[in-house]
Amino acid sequence: MIQGAAAVAAILAAAALAGCLGEDDVRGSAREGGAAFVALGGLPTARDPALAADPATRAALWLVYTPPLTYRRAEGEDGTELIPGVARALPKVSGDGRTYSFRVRRGLRYSNGRPVRARDVRHSLLRASALGDIGRRLFAGISSIAADDRTGAVRVRLRRPDPAFPHALAAVQAGVVPAGTPMRDQSGRPPPGVGPYRIISSRAGRGLDLARNRDLRLPGVPGGLIDVFRLSAGSGAAEQVKAVMAGRLDVMTDRPPAALLPELRSDFEDRYREYPAMATRYLAVRAAGEPFETAELRDALAYAIDKPEATRRLEGLARPTCSLLPPALPGYAEPDACPWGDPEEHPDLLRAQELVEEAAAEGTLVTVAAAREDRPIARLYVETLRQIGLRPALVDGGGADVTLSMARSALPDPASFLRPLARRVPLYVDPEPLLVADELASAEDQDEAADLAERLDRELVDSAIVIPYGGVLRTLFLSARIDADNCARVHPVYGIDLSSLCLR
Q1: Can you tell me the distance from the alpha carbon of 239 to that of 269, in angstroms, rounded to the nearest whole number?
Q2: How many CA atoms lie within 13 A of 365 on its CB side?
Q3: What is the pLDDT of residue 13?
């Protein structure tokens, strides 16, 4: 591994001399070479894949450490498809759903030239389950791991069936490192990995430098195009916008200030993008006790959320929706007719008031809670509830009748996304969502799982216990140095795929 300021300076100088030509690469083209400066919405907090926790760290280390499985390098739902990574093929699953068997690719090597072995995969999964909170959750169901270096075979045995386990094998935390890597945080001296980039310098508290791994030969995982990325935390969002405009910063994923969004959307539409995140904003209704057990009152609460105005108060970085699943997840299907009216239209307050009267709930106290960033929408909602005959109050803390929440999942798996929401629906209110959630959790066929996810989404929306109102949008702003038209892939799980970028 190359480390130190002198090595980084040498690589940057070579990249500058080569420009976009990558002259020392016989496979080079006019799209390869150069250096780029990146702010990923925060500084990566770890350099060890087992400890990857925040989005910036996952987005960076995804380029350096490939797990046994990985996700197709594509946008939208295609990017949630599992493909082999370090493994030769997708795992074979035993009849009882508890054993996953695969082999490590032949001839695969780390960035330092050492061969990848089956024992490395075993060690990497054990490290992840021992060192980090996310790894512990992902691999808590493992009862044993066997590895045979002679054949390259790996066999993972689970305590109980888990159809979502392949997604755990594709998580950054499962990124494969050598078996000799100590069972402690190696951020100070990152281990070698298998990926389109390698870590060449870690500037403590200030940044991370990645260099292209020109020797990568991994089907399904394309090599990088830019020679060197310098990752930093970036300054404030307004300063980052100015830096991108001036070409001092090439990639910005922080949300720009609201005052600058109109200019970015109109004058920089070729380089500024807003795209769906794997997250949805929703209202969580506490159905315990009268009158919230009454379907008519819950329907009134659902009618009362002004989705277009709510998303406007979120600076337009959300899209009105009637679906809980984000667009990239299998099973997403915006319904032809939303039970609470067109999400693009303002609410039918007359119908909401009629429902309050049908429930004999006029003047009922309705407490509303929200996190700080959701307070503008909460205040809007409280105003609307008052208009339809209820007595709303904005409160702090838990236990409110209605809570503004956000659904998200670290895995692009519809079951992982929807099952926690299904648990909010009491059996006495509607048992159907819980039954469908159990079916979805055990579904092994992907088409069946997508159909069940779509059905569960509809069941949850119809219950008016979990009421979606806004699909979350993320932002990306690229400098004029980046060829945004031809090489800028936004992945649904990790955001901007730096390995896809090239300079003009």
Answers
A1: 19
A2: 6
A3: 52
121 three-state secondary structure:
helix
Same domain, 23 and 130: yes
Model pLDDT, residue 500:
96
Closest alpha carbon to 333 in 321, 316, 319: 321
- Amino acid (one-letter) located at 108: L
Supply the pLDDT for residue 22: 32
Cβ-contact 139, 121 below 8 angstroms: no
Specify the DSSP element, H or E, that contains 272: strand 272-285
Q: How far is CA 175 from the centre of its chain?
A: 17
Do 425 and 484 lie in one domain? The reply is: no
Residue 98 lies in a domain: yes
Shared domain check, 329 and 379: yes
45 and 159 in a single domain? The answer is yes
End-to-end CA distance of the chain: 29
Q: Give me the number of domains the chain comprises.
A: 2
Q: Profile the chain (504 residues) by mean pLDDT over runs of 10 residues.
A: 50 46 38 91 89 92 97 95 97 96 97 97 97 94 97 97 94 97 94 96 76 93 95 90 96 95 96 96 89 94 96 93 95 88 94 96 96 93 97 91 92 93 90 93 89 96 95 97 94 95 94
Q: Which domain holds residue 303?
A: 276-474
Q: What does the alpha-carbon distance between residue 392 and residue 352 come to, in Å, rounded to a whole number? A: 15
Q: What tokens were used for 177?
A: 């490192």
Q: What is the CATH number of the domain that holds 233?
A: 3.40.190.10
Quick one: tokens of 262? 């109109």
Burial class (CB in 10 A: 0-12, 13-18, 19+), 74: middle
